Amino acid sequence: MISEMKEIYRADPGYSYQLCDRLAKDQLWAALMIQKHLADVEFVVNYKIFPAHKSILAARSQVFADEFEKVQPVNDVPHQIRIETGADPSTVLNFLHFVYTGEPIGTLADEELLKLAEHYQLLTLANLCKLALEKIDAMQMAVLRKRLNSNPGELSSSKIMPEEETEIFFDRTTPTFRCPWLLKKSENGQSKSVMQYLNEKIFIAYFTEVKEIESQSKQDDPSIPVMHFTCAKHRRFGLKVEDVYCGMQGSGTRGYMLWLKMEPKYHQENAELLHFTEQALLDFSKANLQFRVYFDIKTVSTIGNYNYEMMDDKWTTDFWMAAINQKWTDVEIFVGTFKVMEVHRIILCARSPVLNASLSKISSGTKSEVYFQEDFGVGVVQHFFNFLYTGSLKSTDSVHQLSKLATIYQVETLKNVCQLLNRVPDVEELSDCLIQLEPPDELPINSAVFQIIPSFVNYVIMT
């Protein structure tokens, strides 16, 4: 997975792993077929017609937005876009899928797809296509050289096809987080957050020093750092920690990274608090006062449809910014009598069956209004719509109210996320963790260091 991420980043840093509700993509894509009565654009290619929506296209491409602004709309007559570049229907479908979901549905090694991406200024898609085409060119040249050097007579009857490795595969349910940590001798016993998840610290590291037995009396002799890694609150965010590995360079490794599996101090499969330890490969000395360590935390997502996925980073913001800027919006949102914002009917109908049922009763040519009770508050309603648009929860504030909205409007993934965030940790289980984590008498850990773990427990319970 790490190598795949590096390869994508070389193509475009705007295509990366993002936490997202899978249903947000699936439902929006399904709207092309299900919400046909809301479609106001038609793509025509080789006598095949694909319906689409102006608000979606305009949010993702300024070229589409400019084109729609120039043409005066005709009631009940969709705007037609004819693709004359020689593209196949499958290419146009792949293009639309990237527009609607931020990810491709077919091969990226398609010159016609590249032309569409460049024409409509979808830079991330264009860069991904260029990378895929370059990979195929390189493989074709390698095959060609092999054929020429072996049996030239076979070349004319052989097909040069891309290998399966040209496509990008990943397992969306088992994310691995890589966290860097600069381990400094001067920070002995000081805890440091190595990763935040939804603005909350869930992975924390610190180290303690153990001097070599024969050198206990000498102040300046080398000491061995023992690394401690704690996982807290991960279960609230739907993450089950499987294993933790630490990587570092050791003496005699010639610059290569060595990876060690950290041993759990107290590890139950569904524990609220996990603690791992491992002895470093390098010693502290006058000449070596710091070195870099990497942690790989292998996890499993336990919330259905809420995972890290590779996607166009702009997908999570383009639609939302179109709503904020009131571009092609057709629904007004009120809390009480206060107008909060304007949004897009197609997104609301795609994401919530309740909103779809109410908005479908209103003709598509008129602007609709949706009212929320004042008890929910403006901020909560904005967070709710932000999740509908982006598929990601940006804050853990007001999860009780968000849970109510998710239940009322049948937004299943948000409901499941809020249920976990609202879950009260088992205090008895946390106490058992602390008992198991008490340092043995022979281990020279400063008493102040061990205060770190209880503070995390209090942090979990209080929040």
From TrEMBL:
It comes from the Eukaryota. Transmembrane segments: none annotated. Residues 39-103, 329-397 form the BTB domain. Coiled coil: none annotated. This is BTB domain-containing protein. It comes from Daphnia pulex (Water flea). The lineage of its organism: Eukaryota, Metazoa, Ecdysozoa, Arthropoda, Crustacea.
